Amino acid sequence: MKGISIKDIAKQAGVSPTTVSFVLNGKAKEKRISDQVSKKILKLAAKLKYKPNQLARGLRTGKTKTIGLIVEDIANHFFANVAKIVEEEADKFGYKVLYGSTEDNLTKARGLLEVLEYRQVDGYIITPTPNLDKEIEVLKNSRKPMVLMDRYLPQIPTNYVMVNNFQGSYDAAEYLLELGYQKIALVTTTSEQIQMKERFNGFTAAMKAHRASLPRKMCKKIPFGASKEEAVSQIMEFIKGLPGLDAIFFTTNYLGIYGIESVKELGMKIGEDVALISFDDHDLFRLHTPGITCVAQPIHDIARNVIQVLMNELNQHNNQINQVVLPATLIKRESCRKRAKTVA
Amino acid sequence: MKGISIKDIAKQAGVSPTTVSFVLNGKAKEKRISDQVSKKILKLAAKLKYKPNQLARGLRTGKTKTIGLIVEDIANHFFANVAKIVEEEADKFGYKVLYGSTEDNLTKARGLLEVLEYRQVDGYIITPTPNLDKEIEVLKNSRKPMVLMDRYLPQIPTNYVMVNNFQGSYDAAEYLLELGYQKIALVTTTSEQIQMKERFNGFTAAMKAHRASLPRKMCKKIPFGASKEEAVSQIMEFIKGLPGLDAIFFTTNYLGIYGIESVKELGMKIGEDVALISFDDHDLFRLHTPGITCVAQPIHDIARNVIQVLMNELNQHNNQINQVVLPATLIKRESCRKRAKTVA
DNA sequence: TGTTTATGCTAAATCGTTATAGCGCGTACG
DNA sequence: CGTACGCGCTATAACGATTTAGCATAAACA
């Protein structure tokens, strides 16, 4: 059950494969193929359901029309959604997507990059793991079209698309202050990922700008990779040590989820005894009662911009660097409420 | 910046490309290449970081070492997780995965199948949309390795891997009865998808087996594709019309989620006023307070079995059909509790 | 009439691999 | 002494497309 090749069409049409190729690639006019012949070929191709062999084409042209998508975890809500839009958008340009998850593990990331090179992908969308700098640099120097996503490497100027982590957290802090919260805590992770640092910085900057205090004892770092139980118990301890606490900001959604559990476990009411706000949206935040206020990433825009930047690179090898920082959106739900101003 | 080819190695080693190919494919012994030459070639290949061009190789061998994964929605919790394991498992066999979402739309599914054919994928993993029978039949007749997932087409005998929908729902019903619930309702969708029917059938079968009644008025079908608002309001109406109702079974997780909202909206307490149980697990069910009892699909096993069946087909063209039905697991949480038996 | 130019098409090389057929040499056999 | 075989390797032809260079033929021009 072999497929129909250009030769089969050529034979049946009584012309050379070259002619068929010209016509099928829309170069009939340019190559001065008569309308008669053109039409005959087009008809035959349709009738035989000719499908160009992308392998042969790729081998000859050096383009596979395939892009590699490296994410932290494709099963994660954020990345799964990005993967979906990326696939849809890429499809519009005739590209297919090969994907892989790094689990934020350097070795896995290296493996993925290698396989994608084998596969001759035309371009890369990468969520870099820690210490992937060297590999990114190599890729950059080989002039492969590439866009980083969700994170960037401060030392290497490259294309990237990400949310404005600083602004998002800044807005979160301002919102809490505006509502009248006064004893505000922050929970983050020990991970050195740049986006976590920026979220931390944005929040503290807003606090400072409004002359609110965020002393070190109001900030808790949960070890990266801690189990749910460990995390929850640490957060509970942290909360217990802060009497009068009225609001908590979590720098990422899984911490926020642990936070919900911790607060409930302590018998406190979310939105009444304590306000919760988290970076990143999540089904759970949306559907929880009360709804959890959060700083949402513009997933669609991120994916669309990633593809746009990549397609730009793919189509014209300008050396211009595209760095897109998209605004985060504060989604107000019932976990934060207007407070009657009381003097502490 | 061209890559290193087999010719480059051949030239530097002073041998023919054929020899290099033999050695690099582990056929040195078989093809009687001397150890001397073998070693020299291996060393050179490592030194030059030779990466075989999969395109050329694929063109020659007719194998791309790529499989196509067609799911309903890659952003959906279930499929995203399957996609993750599928990728990991495929990787172990040297395969990469191309994916796409159908949105349960026939036209999209056709488009995906076509693109994957272009791309010469070696095998297909397909979550069939309604009315995809003809295309599946064609694929089957062309003897392409293929496994259906999550659903099957009753009219066409093919490989498939899925959860035991009937048993899962059966267990759910038995569990509710065992706990002493007496006025039990079921919420499903109007979708004619086979798995939904089986879930419905399993539940009713268990009820009948235990001489419990499930009259038609206790069953609600929500239109497929209804918006969240519509669905929630319909479920609310349904519940309001059933005084004394003490438990509700939802045939799929998004209905269960709507159910949670509906029940809360009505001011009822989950697990106290009414028990909820849903087919399919979800982050929300796990993290909700109270936790929502559900019938979970063995996602890992499904993905692993899918790959195993596919690899079987890929490696040996036996015509044997593999149909794997995996048990569903009842995950008990607080949304269903032991009831003091009261006479209605 | 002889030289250009335009027209409509094709031969052949090429991409990087794999697979088949077989070459030249030395040794063993009858 | 002629032939058969084992050994270690290679030449060459694919796979299916794209692309470059160019070949006839006819029309146009001087």
What this model shows, in words?
The structure is a homodimer of 344-residue chains. Chain A has 344 residues and is α/β, with parallel strands linked by helices. Chain A is built from 13 helices and 12 strands. Chain A has a 6-stranded parallel sheet, with helices on both faces. The first copy, chain A, has a 6-stranded mixed sheet with strand order 7-6-8-9-10-12, with helices on both faces. In chain A, helix 7 links the parallel strand 3 and strand 4 (146-149). The radius of gyration of chain A is 26 Å and the shape is elongated. The mean pLDDT of chain A is 94. At the A-B interface, helix 4, helix 5, strand 2, helix 6 and helix 11 of A face helix 4, helix 5, strand 2, helix 6 and helix 11 of B. The structure holds a DNA duplex (30 and 30 nucleotides).
Q: N-to-C SSE series of chain A?
A: HHHHEHEHEHEEHEHEHEHEHEHEE
Biggest interface, chains and residues, is: A-B, 47 and 47 residues
Alpha-beta classification of chain A: alpha/beta
Assign a percent range to the helix content of chain A. 40-55%
Index terms:
homodimer, 344 residues, alpha/beta, six-stranded parallel beta sheet, six-stranded mixed beta sheet, 13 helices, 12 strands, DNA-binding
